[in-house]
Amino acid sequence: MTPSEIDRIFRDEAGRALATLIRLVGDFDLAEDALQDAFAVALDRWAAGEVPANPRAWLVNVARHKVIDRIRRQAVFRGKQEALVHEIELNVPAADEPPAMLDDDMLRLIFTCCHPAFAPEVQVALTLRTVCGLSTTQVARAFLVGEEAMAQRLVRAKQKIRLAGIPYEVPEREELATRLEGVLAVIYLVFTEGYVATSGADLMRPDFAIEAIRLARLLDRLMPDRAGIKGLLALMLLHDARRAGRETAAGDIVLLEEQDRSLWDRAQIEEGLRLVDDALRVPGLPQPYLVQAAIAALHARAPSYEQTDWRQITGLYGVLLRIGPSPVIELNHAAALSMVDGPARALDLVDAISARGGLRGYALLPAVRADLLRRLGRKDEAREAYQAATAATQLEPLRRLYARRVREMR
Amino acid sequence: MQYLLMIYQNEAEYAKNDEATSQKILAEYQAFTQSIVQSGNYKGGDRLRPTTTATTVRVRDGKTLMTDGPFAETREQLAGYYLIEAKDIDAATAIAARIPSARIGSIEVRPIWEHDK
């Protein structure tokens, strides 16, 4: 087996192997360290040709023995440690654990990483590191922080699991809906960073978008028939399907109105549309992600920018505002409305948001304003707004887009 | 596990409550305390006198320094605490959320440092 094949197996199995191992040994940190040890052994043996039939079971079993070694090496807690070792020895995973058990392990891991006792960015970091199996270096890169700082943050989080008693459990029925929202928020945060990066030279970081979609697919399989999960998965598939059309070879932004729609990934759009239909059949209150997916579906179905059903899109933003009002949705609503009632009416709405002090420091507010002013032919004000938008973003391609708009207005 | 639930609220605002409101909150506290005694979670707890009665002590270079008032001026002050036994953080935060002051102030939930962990 080549190192890259081995690496792929690690990536695929890391989350699941860890999830099971934590249940067996009852300690997050210990399980993670032991799994690293097991990977090291695997790298040696598998490269030499001894590849097990079931790599995950093999990894879990080797790691379990590594846990026992590690406990025995910590001579501090004698007496107690033998009892612990004995217990872990008894917790042998059955050769053929029922898949439902393994699924539960994975859900436990996801819900633990996305526990509300962690700050949102810590939830994202823990999920990327443990559920997705990214390395600490990769997670650090995602947050644009040093590896040392990220390693520290992860260590503290794992300490908190143990010391504050964060349970390794799928929440009880009455808590489940709220906690699931938190998990979906984490997945969506991972996605949005991939869709439009916060800063830097590149507009997109597709790895994160792909990782988020992978997570949502997993969750949809583990918890079927939940409109929120299906809606989020559909939303991300539909957004991500446009990836090839969203930038030029040189890395410049291509706006929705300018995109070559033949570059969109039709197969992925079809999957997204099917999911929206499926989710709409699930009874219950309208889910925000599903409504957003329905908006994305209208864009995906439209033959051109002009022939988009803007009226229905505006209506759906209205639905979103009723479910959970937020200034960001108001801004999107105003932008969509500009295609129905014209930019003047939309500008009033945008200025009303600013007048209330909403979205202060939100980089896209001046950008939307600038676009509306440009369409109204109010060039001087538009130029000023583009300047404000440029100052508000750290992302190079956005700065180039605003500069282009200003040039085009001359 | 054991957790300390620290009750923070704005003393000045709380002092403005009229007699009827104070009585109502007191009754809510009594009912809450009784419920966690009955459920077996209660390990201890007290209401504290306001920070106007606080004294802060430091020892520097062997000398004891005393100052009037709390260590730091903050918007919310420690008003009381409960020591509870709970299965995990979820159980502890669920109990914390039932403390009457959670609706006006905030409750900090901290695990007790257990020395064999």
From TrEMBL, chain A:
Transmembrane segments: none annotated. Residues 11-75 form the RNA polymerase sigma-70 region domain. GO terms for biological process: DNA-templated transcription initiation. Signal peptide: none annotated. Residues 179-279 form the DUF6596 domain. GO terms for molecular function: DNA-binding transcription factor activity. Pfam families: DUF6596 (PF20239), Sigma70_r2 (PF04542). This is RNA polymerase subunit sigma-24. It comes from Bradyrhizobium nitroreducens.
From TrEMBL, chain B:
The lineage of its organism: Bacteria, Pseudomonadati, Pseudomonadota, Alphaproteobacteria, Hyphomicrobiales. This is DGPF domain-containing protein. Residues 1-114 form the YCII-related domain. Belongs to the YciI family. It comes from the Bacteria.
